[in-house]
């Protein structure tokens, strides 16, 4: 039953997942957003930004990062070991992060479709409604198991963060159908 639950939960949630895989490349709007952030925080006009400027730019783009993370990110893309990054290095570094941010936005749109009563949580009733609308023939026990799988705080509901975790787990782990015993290993 675990494998069928996993396949069923994947089919209930798959509309956002196809789009999530497309997020790996930046579109023109995202590239322009990066250009603006880079220019705004290249305060001395040198064409490069240092760790302090990078942290400010990332905050402006909606990312919360620690100083050590910023230094590590610069080290990974700083080809000339200058301690700064130019725009191309910035784009290379941010491409995956922009995709992750957009993927979260897509997943949260799906969450809102489930949460039709605007409680900020997905209930058994919400899940049952979506399953019925999609023509999925799930038993009440199967739907309860789906909620239990995602419900980390054991309050009987699925919060936005819990929903995001389970969606990332389902989309990032191609072996998920083979090993359903890794409930505590959520990827984020």
UniProtKB/TrEMBL annotation:
<keyword id="KW-0106">Calcium</keyword>
<feature type="domain" description="EF-hand">
    <location>
        <begin position="65"/>
        <end position="100"/>
    </location>
</feature>
<dbReference type="InterPro" id="IPR011992">
    <property type="entry name" value="EF-hand-dom_pair"/>
</dbReference>
<feature type="compositionally biased region" description="Low complexity">
    <location>
        <begin position="1"/>
        <end position="14"/>
    </location>
</feature>
<feature type="region of interest" description="Disordered">
    <location>
        <begin position="1"/>
        <end position="25"/>
    </location>
</feature>
<dbReference type="InterPro" id="IPR018247">
    <property type="entry name" value="EF_Hand_1_Ca_BS"/>
</dbReference>
<keyword id="KW-0206">Cytoskeleton</keyword>
<dbReference type="InterPro" id="IPR002048">
    <property type="entry name" value="EF_hand_dom"/>
</dbReference>
<feature type="domain" description="EF-hand">
    <location>
        <begin position="138"/>
        <end position="173"/>
    </location>
</feature>
<dbReference type="InterPro" id="IPR050230">
    <property type="entry name" value="CALM/Myosin/TropC-like"/>
</dbReference>
<dbReference type="Pfam" id="PF13499">
    <property type="entry name" value="EF-hand_7"/>
</dbReference>
<keyword id="KW-0677">Repeat</keyword>
<feature type="domain" description="EF-hand">
    <location>
        <begin position="102"/>
        <end position="137"/>
    </location>
</feature>
<dbReference type="GO" id="GO:0005509">
    <property type="term" value="F:calcium ion binding"/>
</dbReference>
<comment type="similarity">
    <text>Belongs to the centrin family.</text>
</comment>
<feature type="domain" description="EF-hand">
    <location>
        <begin position="29"/>
        <end position="64"/>
    </location>
</feature>
<keyword id="KW-0963">Cytoplasm</keyword>
<dbReference type="GO" id="GO:0016460">
    <property type="term" value="C:myosin II complex"/>
</dbReference>
<protein>
    <recommendedName>
        <fullName>EF-hand domain-containing protein</fullName>
    </recommendedName>
</protein>
């Amino acid at each position: 039953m675990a494998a069928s639950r996993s396949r069923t939960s994947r089919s209930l949630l798959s509309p956002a997942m196809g789009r999530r895989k497309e997020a790996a490349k930046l579109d023109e709007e995202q590239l322009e957003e990066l250009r603006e952030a880079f220019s705004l925080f290249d305060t001395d006009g040198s064409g490069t930004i240092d760790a302090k400027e990078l942290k400010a730019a990332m905050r402006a783009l909606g990312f919360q990062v620690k100083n050590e993370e910023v230094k590590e990110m610069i080290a990974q893309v700083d080809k000339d070991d200058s301690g700064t990054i130019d725009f191309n290095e910035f784009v290379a570094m941010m491409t995956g992060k922009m995709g992750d941010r957009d993927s979260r936005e897509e997943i949260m749109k799906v969450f809102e479709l489930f949460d039709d009563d605007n409680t900020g949580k997905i209930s058994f009733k919400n899940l049952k409604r979506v399953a019925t609308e999609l023509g999925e023939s799930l038993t009440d026990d199967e739907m309860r198991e789906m909620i239990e799988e995602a419900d980390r705080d054991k309050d009987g509901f699925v919060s936005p963060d819990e929903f995001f975790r389970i969606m990332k787990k389902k989309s990032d782990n191609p072996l998920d159908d083979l090993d359903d015993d890794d409930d505590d290993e959520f990827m984020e």
